[in-house]
Amino acid sequence: MRLFFRKNLKFKLRYWVFSFICLSLVAAQVAPPTLSALSQNDLDAIYGNWAYYDGSNDSCPTVPVEADSEAGLSTRDYSGKEILNEGQVKKIQKFSNVYQEAAKEADIPWQMLAVVHLKESGLGKNNPSNGQGVYQFVSKQGGPYPEGEIDDKEFLRQTILAAKFLKSKANANYSQNRDLSPDSSPEVIKDTFFSYNGRASVYEQQAKKLGFEYGYDGSPYVMNKADAKRDPNTNPSGWGQIKRDFGAIEYPANQGYGTFVVYASLAGLSSGSCTTQGTVRSKVVQLVQKELALWESGGLKPGTDFKKYTGGAQGNWCAWFVSWVYNQAGYPLDSSPEGRVPAVVTVKSIGEKGDKFKFHAVPGYTPKPGDIAVYLGGGISHVNLVVGVKGKIVTVIGGNQGGGGSGFTASKVTQYDLSSPNAGGAVGYVSPD
Question: Where among 213, 236, 265 does a domain terminate?
């Protein structure tokens, strides 16, 4: 299968010093980096209504805290429609222990199993008549699967088999997406769902026609109803699907939500701990990508909207921004009101204390999505957040960037690539411990 990679990623960063608190960084104008996760077209609207665990009590919420009073939900698609109904959420919660046990054995996100279970058998606990089992193994591996209801032991066995199968499918992904684990980037999750369903070349072609680069973006199994381009109701002649095993593409695609769209809607459900490293990192990436989309779409604008992160305060706001994101993810940097940290040096010292966070100096450390990149020295004082790593290339998103030297009121949230973990004056990374 043909792979599509960006070539010759070379970026120059320019810096303008505003104060010791924060420096606004501007990247050269380039094409969006390969590892951009959760673009506006993907999931901006989906995450728009999420209210993540805020740490205000000892137990994690089992549904989003801003749930509808009747349906118990707050997840909406790009058009405002609910992705999961109340009955589906209750079934997922009922089976959550099984998903988590199987996911732990295979070292994958438990939500992936819930999504595949929903997609393949409607969260049923019975083998369909086609002999492929609850998770619809086309080759019937692990069978036979006689038609009818199955007991708890068999359901767990099949779920573990599905978890290991998902893990193995990651090996077929694009090279940068083969490390499937509980804290994987959205790209890895999308790519694995694509492999699970079958990496059909027609989906590669469909993705390109719609302006996307990778095959998973052209697969309804993965991205159905992620946006208007990939909605069979708004693009019936341009968004098709293979509806039968080994069949041809048909138009329009069916009505079910894509696996990654549903996966995203489950991001706020309890997985046993609200502050496990994987959960925190995942939420941080999701949140910062949501904020980037708001700035890129014009939903937030330079001048005054940065005060969303500063509590109304004026000043260079990169540290305020990263601390706001971590507070929203339920893992605040410190105990100050809303976890607000105004100074870059304070962010670094929090990591050096080693309580909830840890500072890793570079070179010698490979950053991970969710890490806070710290830039100090030579007139530079800045922080932003890692959202992707491909070889030596580190993709970051930060606040108080892109102002062009005009001051913090002209800056915004932007994304760019570093050519290496210690490029651009990065002295290290602060990670959730």
Answer: 265
